[in-house]
UniProtKB/TrEMBL annotation:
Residues 9-69 form the HTH tetR-type domain. The keyword Cell cycle does not apply. Keywords: DNA-binding. InterPro entries: Homeodomain-like_sf, HTH-type_Tx_Regulator, HTH_TetR. The keyword Cytoplasm does not apply. This is TetR/AcrR family transcriptional regulator.
Length: 196
């Protein structure tokens, strides 16, 4: 049974990687299941045994990414609970969480480019907004006296922009991105406090 599952997993990974490779050159809407099967060196029957259509493949790629980001975010929340109020602690915890993005920049670049899923950036925004809401009590954001939802949309939109930038500028590390995000965020919080 394990051998069969491993073969299935390997075939599905091949199909997903082939789809991502095709998306580097073609708009997703123009990619066909025949192209995917041919480039994956599979027959169509095998392809359809694993996925209903190309949208099913894309959905699985995205789902796998979001699932992979769940555990690092949960770990980040636990680390923040144990971190001091020190800016450096929170920044290093965010840098560790951002490693999941660093490890998936190839996938993110394809999904966020013009050939990718036009809905993915919105899905990423919503995914991160939900995580941000879980982080608020730990980060003390509830105590700022501002519209938390508005602040979240502002900050997470910025983070999504940073991730998009990162896909094009790979020389930066997760620590660099966390440093930038926290430098901007610290000034935002100072500005918000001055509005009172």
């Amino acid at each position: 049974m394990n051998k069969y599952k491993n073969k299935n997993d390997k075939t599905e990974k091949n199909i997903m990687n082939t789809t991502l490779t095709l998306m580097q050159s073609y708009e997703f809407s123009n990619i066909t299941m025949n192209q995917i099967a041919e480039n994956a060196k599979l027959n169509r029957v095998t392809l359809y045994r694993h996925f209903d259509d190309k949208w099913d493949i894309l959905e699985r790629i995205e789902k796998d990414f979001f699932q992979a980001a769940e555990a690092p975010h949960q770990k980040m929340i636990e680390q923040l609970k144990n971190a001091s109020e020190d800016y450096q602690d929170a920044r290093s915890v965010l840098a560790e969480f951002l490693e999941i993005f660093a490890n998936n920049l190839d996938i993110l670049e394809v999904l966020m480019n013009d050939n990718g899923d036009s809905r993915f950036t919105s899905k990423l925004l919503n995914f991160l907004l939900k995580r941000e809401k879980l982080s608020h009590p730990v980060l003390g954001i509830n105590d700022l006296g501002v519209n938390q939802e508005m602040l979240s949309y502002y900050e997470i939109s910025g983070l999504v922009g940073i991730i998009k930038f990162w896909t094009k500028h790979r020389q930066y590390k997760a620590k660099d991105m966390a440093d930038f995000f926290f430098a901007v965020r610290t000034n935002e919080v100072k500005g918000i406090k001055q509005l009172k």
